């Protein structure tokens, strides 16, 4: 199964509900919530209050990507706000095994993310515990950036490692994904595609979502 997860970071927050409806009509599988604190990344986005409102507005699973320092302190807030998946950055956590178990003990799926310059091998000792690994294909903090081609090698490496270890976690990729590169990202092994500007900056949000979904479903064997 392949999943499209539109990132609401790029949505129009004054028209969030109709834009969520548009991606739902287009076949979105999840909603990706890019949480930024202005410390771990050089940008501030939104927090639990917005997640709570979005939760009331959709049945889609909420995939919360915490680009924040000290995520342990906020995990319960995001769980209470309705997050279905909480992903923390390997670079932002001192005791990653403890943080992943904290998330799972609250009944929520646990993900771990790595920045472009962080090797896949840094995740070797946590892979058996996580539900998802998020490979950042841009330097986190902003939508609309160009996809870093070195990400393809990392996706391949992670998919091979998953096979070798006989694990089942999902591989998610976030940043610079569009119709011109989503096929090769899918063929490299991506399961969950986070897309912001290639959906929300389009005139027809539903059609943009559906087009991307059709491309990945055509590569799914
Ligand atoms: C970066 C953000 C973006 C966003 C996707 O921190 O995580 O990658 O979700 O934005 P686009 O699809 O516009 O690159
Ligand atoms: Zn993200």
Question: Which key terms come to mind for this protein?
Answer:
binds D-xylitol-5-phosphate; single chain; 221 residues; eight-stranded parallel sheet; alpha/beta; binds zinc ion
Q: What general outline do the C-alpha atoms trace?
A: globular
Major sheet summary line = 8 strands, parallel
CATH class: Alpha Beta
The CATH H-level homologous superfamily: Aldolase class I
Secondary structure elements and pairings:
Blueprint: E1 3-6, H1 16-25, E2 31-36, H2 48-57, E3 62-67, H3 75-81, E4 85-89, H4 96-105, E5 109-114, E6 132-136, H5 150-164, E7 170-174, H6 182-188, E8 192-195, H7 197-200, H8 205-219
Helix pairs in contact: 1-8, 2-3, 6-8
Residues 7, 9-10, 32, 34, 67, 138, 140-145, 174-177, 194-198 line the site of D-xylitol-5-phosphate.
Characterize this entry briefly.
Helix content is 35%, strand content 19%. With 221 residues, it is α/β, with parallel strands linked by helices. It has one domain: TIM Barrel (Alpha-Beta Barrel).
């Amino acid at each position: 199964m392949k999943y499209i997860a539109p990132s609401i970071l790029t949505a129009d927050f004054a028209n969030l509900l109709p834009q969520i409806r548009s991606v739902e009509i287009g076949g979105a599988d999840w909603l990706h919530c890019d949480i930024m604190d202005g410390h771990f990344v050089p940008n501030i986005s939104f927090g639990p209050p917005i997640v709570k409102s979005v939760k009331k507005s959709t049945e889609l699973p909420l995939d919360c990507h915490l680009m924040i320092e000290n995520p342990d302190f906020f995990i319960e807030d995001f769980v209470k706000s309705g997050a279905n998946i909480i992903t923390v950055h390997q670079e932002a956590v001192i005791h990653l095994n403890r943080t992943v178990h904290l998330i799972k003990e609250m009944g929520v799926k646990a993900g771990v993310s790595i920045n472009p310059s962080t090797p896949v091998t840094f995740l070797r000792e946590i892979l058996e515990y996580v539900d998802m690994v998020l490979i950042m294909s841009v330097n986190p903090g902003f939508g609309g950036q160009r996809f870093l081609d070195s990400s393809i090698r990392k996706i391949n490496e992670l998919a091979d490692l998953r096979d070798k270890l006989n694990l089942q976690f999902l591989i998610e990729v976030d940043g610079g994904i569009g119709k011109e590169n989503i096929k090769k990202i899918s063929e490299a092994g991506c399961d969950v595609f986070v897309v912001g500007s290639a959906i929300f900056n389009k005139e027809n949000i539903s059609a943009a979502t559906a087009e991307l979904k059709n491309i990945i479903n055509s590569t799914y064997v």
